[in-house]
Design a protein that fits this description.
The structure is a single chain. The chain has 419 residues and is of the alpha/beta class. The protein has helices spanning 38-53, 61-73, 80-100, 104-107, 130-136, 138-147, 159-162, 172-178, 180-189, 205-215, 232-240, 254-263, 274-277, 279-291, 305-317, 328-331, 364-368, 383-388, 396-401; strands at 3-11, 14-24, 29-35, 115-121, 124-125, 128-129, 152-155, 194-198, 223-224, 246-248, 269-270, 324-326, 339-340, 345-346, 349-351, 361-362, 372-377. The protein folds into two domains: 3-101 and 365-412, 2-Layer Sandwich (Enolase-like, domain 1); 105-355, TIM Barrel (Alpha-Beta Barrel), CATH 3.20.20. Helix 1 packs across helix 2 (61-73), helix 2 (61-73) packs antiparallel against helix 3 (80-100) and helix 14 (279-291) packs parallel to helix 15 (305-317). The longest helix has 21 residues, at 80-100.
Length: 419
């Protein structure tokens, strides 16, 4: 089996969402996804990484990941390159599972569990307006979640009060107003529901320290990105100001950035976004690294539906996953328009996918949409790309010259190439 072509699909309704389909010569198609700056990621897939993969064996996932990462790291990895690698990695795992006729979590080592508890991020789409309703009727929102068996939620009460001053000034009356919904929830329900606080990195450190101290009696599940995750020392100071766990952070990419937070006192929970940080391959490594430090992981979501499937496989096969993010407004809203089948959340738990591979596929109707933008690449690695980067696979002609007796360190190439 070889990779015959790579296809990307964007839809105008969701301009930051990018689906990636890796096609093989046997007809098996792997599905991946990423989110944000989709046209830039699309270019990275087709102009840089696609030529490395076309004509190769899709089962050699780790080798492909290392080769793509080394190409991106040649000039400093991050951003669009890692999101492209993430989408391609998920698609390759989908192919692997379909080939073996097993769900991905079974290929990763089998089920640690077959369901994972979810928390609902308060989103807005269609008839579900949790993100608005929590300000007018916080008790009603919690009642509706508990009715579905969901006993944890996440909100962003301080976001809007940061806008006027870009988080540089925090007025007492603003903070008091922002925390009213959470206080109402605690007055009515006590600790019947956990509530996480997401700050979206809008605050400076002194104001973030004030927020965590003021919220301490309300016993939030965690504080997430009250400050930017660019500085783990500042995060450590924030963590020292509260007994509430600090969660960091979906913006971090690869095990290398997560390591700084895992090995320091900068956070108590690590929160990788699978479709940004390096895909299934990398999040599995991040989970193992965190487990060595007795740290739980809580995968980030609130992007497209494929991420939820991919995270489900990580959650089922990784011992130290504590909970999974879920957005019922998106799940019950537009996800059904794009994939089949949809994932299942039942009684507050995300259930393990049971079909081979990822467990879902892109609906044909997505590619037929008038707002769909489709790009396909079927070209193999070219000499100009090889000349830019010595860490990729040698040209096929050079590989053919190698014999079993040829020293593996010859020709100035790394050991990442095909035998």
């Amino acid at each position: 089996m070889i990779i015959s072509n790579i296809e990307t699909i964007r839809v105008g309704q969701f301009p930051d969402l990018l689906f990636t389909q890796v096609h093989t010569d046997t007809g098996i198609v792997g599905l991946g996804e990423t989110w944000y700056a989709a046209p830039t990621v699309e270019s990275a897939i087709h102009d840089y990484f696609g030529p490395l993969l076309v004509g190769r064996n899709p089962s050699e996932i780790e080798r492909h990941w290392q080769t793509m990462f080394r190409l991106s790291d040649h000039a400093g990895y991050g951003g669009a390159e890692l999101r492209a690698i993430s989408a391609l990695d998920v698609a390759l795992w989908d192919i692997k599972g379909q080939t073996l006729q097993l769900p991905i979590f079974e290929v990763l080592g089998g089920g640690m569990r077959h369901r994972i508890k979810v928390y609902n991020t308060l989103g807005v789409y269609g008839n579900i307006t949790d993100g608005y309703d929590v300000w007018n009727d916080p008790v009603g929102v919690v009642h509706s979640l508990l009715d579905e068996g969901i006993t944890a939620m996440k909100m962003s009460p301080t976001d809007f009060i940061a806008r006027e001053t870009d988080g540089q000034i925090l007025f007492n009356d603003d903070l008091d107003f922002a925390l009213k919904p959470l206080r109402s929830i605690r007055d009515k329900f006590g600790m019947e529901i956990d509530v996480a606080n997401d700050g979206h990195a809008k605050w400076n450190l002194p104001n973030a320290m004030r927020i965590v101290r003021e919220m301490e009696p309300l016993r939030p599940m965690w504080h997430e990105e009250l400050i930017s995750p660019l500085n783990e020392v500042a995060h450590a100071r924030l963590q020292s100001a509260t007994s509430t766990p600090i969660a960091a952070a979906e913006r971090l990419m690869t095990r290398y950035q997560h390591r700084r937070f895992i090995e320091s006192r900068a956070a108590m929970i690590t929160m990788p976004d699978l479709t940004w940080t390096g895909g299934i391959s990398e999040v599995k490594k991040i989970g193992i690294l965190a487990s060595a430090h007795q740290m739980p992981i809580a995968p980030h979501d609130c992007v497209g539906p494929v991420n939820m499937f991919a995270c489900a496989h990580i959650a089922m096969s990784t011992p130290n996953v504590m909970i999974m993010e879920y957005n019922r407004a998106l799940h019950k809203g537009w996800y059904n328009d794009l994939i089949e089948p949809n994932f299942v959340v039942e009684d507050g738990y995300l259930l393990a996918p049971n079909e081979p591979g990822l467990g879902t596929r892109l609906k044909q109707s997505v590619k037929d949409r008038r707002d769909a933008i489709i790009r396909v690449s079927d070209r193999k690695e070219e000499s100009w790309l090889m000349s830019r980067n010595r860490y990729t696979y040698p040209p096929q002609a050079m590989q053919d010259e190698f014999t079993s007796s040829t020293p593996r360190r010859s020709a100035g190439f790394s050991s990442v190439y095909y035998d």
